[in-house]
């Protein structure tokens, strides 16, 4: 078993971005600029946003954080987004999820200008990604693809089983791996927690690649996978003792894997790196550099 080291891959990708940005700045252009909106004080979100801002610094970007109180209204948030949409000095904007329950997340996502939607969640970008067109791709799904590419994991013709059907991970990664662009051409089965157990086991036990994103510690057990499987664990579960674990019973399952992502240090890091790639793309679009 070998680790798909997200930390190592992310550092390599961000270093490449930093070199490219240094060239742009050397030619007289401003720094790429990302804005993050954080509503309330959700502890995991604080950690993720801190990682994103730090990564902006390493990439040579301006990264600024707008904090809004838990009590902000949906209309106030939409107005803030509108202002950023019209600010030519900002290349990309994200609203950190989840949002308080009184705010409709899809309304917020839909309010972000597609050309600044570096999360790739807007219907325009999601649709373009699904069609294999140029688009901002959802950061976690894109990060998984970049990690598989970094380690030359074969995808074409492989049987991939995705467990979880969220709009930000399960659905986009299923489409991207089945698509026929840069990394894809796999045969993908999308399952979820409503999939009957026998059907789920039948699929996962035959899978060459399993991607799990259900938010349940230990959901993938040793009996669910075949020898030599490539296992991508998207889970980020904080246990009562503070330990961070994924959706895979790592100790039991890892010995059967040819490759597996660690938690922490796997997909989470790649989410942040992919966001940097998308921000650079937004900047290059802005200055007609690509
Ligand atoms: N607007 C968005 N909100 C959220 C997204 C997203 O893509 N866009 N995804 C998830 C999680 N997420 C991004 O914000 C995220 C998850 C994990 C990490 C990360 O760096 N994890 C580290 C461990 C961090 C820790 O110790 O707490 C790791 O796995 O090594 C970054 C981002 C939710 N919301």
Automatic annotation (TrEMBL):
Domain Tetrahydrofolate dehydrogenase/cyclohydrolase catalytic, residue spans: 4-119
Keyword annotations from UniProtKB, A to Z: Amino-acid biosynthesis, Histidine biosynthesis, Hydrolase, Methionine biosynthesis, Multifunctional enzyme, NADP, One-carbon metabolism, Oxidoreductase, Purine biosynthesis
EC number: 1.5.1.5, 3.5.4.9
Start and end residues of each Tetrahydrofolate dehydrogenase/cyclohydrolase NAD(P)-binding domain: 138-286
Any GO BP annotation: L-histidine biosynthetic process
Catalytic activity of the protein: (6R)-5,10-methenyltetrahydrofolate + H2O = (6R)-10-formyltetrahydrofolate + H(+); (6R)-5,10-methylene-5,6,7,8-tetrahydrofolate + NADP(+) = (6R)-5,10-methenyltetrahydrofolate + NADPH
Keyword Translocase attached: no
CDD domains referenced in this protein's UniProt entry, alphabetically: NAD_bind_m-THF_DH_Cyclohyd
Molecular functions per Gene Ontology: methenyltetrahydrofolate cyclohydrolase activity; methylenetetrahydrofolate dehydrogenase (NADP+) activity
Positions bound to NADP(+): 164-166, 193, 236
InterPro entries in UniProt: Aminoacid_DH-like_N_sf (IPR046346), NAD(P)-bd_dom_sf (IPR036291), THF_DH/CycHdrlase (IPR000672), THF_DH/CycHdrlase_cat_dom (IPR020630), THF_DH/CycHdrlase_CS (IPR020867), THF_DH/CycHdrlase_NAD-bd_dom (IPR020631)
Pfam families assigned: THF_DHG_CYH, THF_DHG_CYH_C
Any one GO CC term of the record: cytosol
Pathway as given in its UniProt record: One-carbon metabolism; tetrahydrofolate interconversion
Ranges that cross the membrane: none
Gene3D superfamilies, alphabetized: Leucine Dehydrogenase, chain A, domain 1, NAD(P)-binding Rossmann-like Domain
HAMAP family: THF_DHG_CYH
PANTHER family membership: C-1-TETRAHYDROFOLATE SYNTHASE, CYTOPLASMIC, C-1-TETRAHYDROFOLATE SYNTHASE, CYTOPLASMIC-RELATED
Function: Catalyzes the oxidation of 5,10-methylenetetrahydrofolate to 5,10-methenyltetrahydrofolate and then the hydrolysis of 5,10-methenyltetrahydrofolate to 10-formyltetrahydrofolate.
Family, per entry: Belongs to the tetrahydrofolate dehydrogenase/cyclohydrolase family.
Subunit architecture: Homodimer.
Protein's recorded name: Bifunctional protein FolD
Species: Oryzomonas rubra
